[in-house]
Specification:
By secondary structure, the protein is of the alpha+beta class. It has a single domain, classed as outer membrane lipoprotein receptor (LolB), chain A (Clam). It is built from four helices and 14 strands. Strands 1, 2, 3, 4, 5, 6, 7, 8, 9, 10, 11, 12, 13 and 14 form a 14-stranded mixed β-sheet that branches. It is globular.
Length: about 260
């Protein structure tokens, strides 16, 4: 899988929830910001200190996907009602996530990543977790927040990428800045030195355009959410909304009991 595909996967952040850029709690209110690049840069900077985070995601849209891997046009798959949630220990690189894709044969499941091993259990694979060593080939790595931070920095550095500050919006008990970024296929591909994206996932992302809305808490510069819409032409449209909460709250993530695990087939 190319670095671009991994980065775009991380920008969306999820399907089995996991590795996302985070921002640490601030002890004092942050000074007001007006420049959209400064707002996103501030969120990236505060990311380095966070230890844990809770992430929730909702997906929608319909995509034309070749799930068989035969190179055909594939079939339309609805993502309506799809959700995921994850607790992430950023210091240890561990995560625990649940996910549900009701339109895909009622698929739901659980992912646990601990000490370089991933444990996955779904309604299609039985009542035991299947274990395998976590690999960089995974589109989302729950513990690798630094790569996502670097990717956001690369997005801001691309020629022609002009973030726009939107209206402030409520974020729970506080207020959030909003920053909107539109990326063309060329700008997305430029993240990988201009090379087209290799597609080891069932959707060709090489011609995708991407609209991002980033929400950043005004009083702490913590990342509060990312809404993304990917337009895939004839392959459909994918939307995802990520929300971030419970910064630096205690979380305990451990491997499933041995009698609930079997090697991946």
């Amino acid at each position: 899988m190319s670095p671009t595909t991994r980065r775009l996967g991380r920008l969306f952040g999820l399907l089995a929830a996991a590795s996302i850029v985070v921002a640490a709690c601030g002890a004092a209110a942050a000074p007001a910001l007006t420049d959209p690049k400064e707002i996103v840069t501030a969120a990236v900077r505060t990311a380095q200190a966070a230890k844990t985070v809770h992430v929730e995601a909702t997906l929608d849209g319909s995509i034309q996907a070749d799930l068989s891997g035969t190179g055909g046009s594939g079939a339309a798959i609805s993502l309506a009602g799809s959700t995921a949630a994850a607790d992430v220990d950023l210091t240890a690189g561990n995560a625990r996530a649940t996910f549900s894709l009701p339109a895909l044969l009622g698929l739901s499941g659980e992912l646990v990543q601990v000490d370089g091993t991933s444990y996955v259990k779904t309604t299609l694979t039985g009542d035991k977790f299947q274990s395998q060593k976590t690999s960089d080939s995974l589109p989302v790595n729950p513990g690798d927040s630094k790569s996502l931070v670097d990717s956001i920095g690369e997005v801001l550095a691309q020629p022609g990428v002009d973030p726009v500050k939107g209206d402030d919006v409520p974020c729970g008990s506080t207020q959030c800045y909003t920053v909107k970024i539109e990326l063309t296929p060329d700008e997305i591909n430029a993240l990988d030195g201009g090379n087209p994206m290799a597609s080891q996932i069932p959707v060709d992302l090489g011609s995708a355009s991407l609209n991002l809305t980033i929400r950043v808490e005004k009083d702490s510069n913590r990342l509060a959410g990312i809404a993304a819409t990917a337009s895939l032409g004839e392959q459909g449209t994918l939307t995802i909304d990520l929300t971030f909460s419970k910064w630096d709250q205690a979380v305990s993530i451990s491997a499933p009991p041995a009698d609930q695990v079997q090697p991946a087939s």
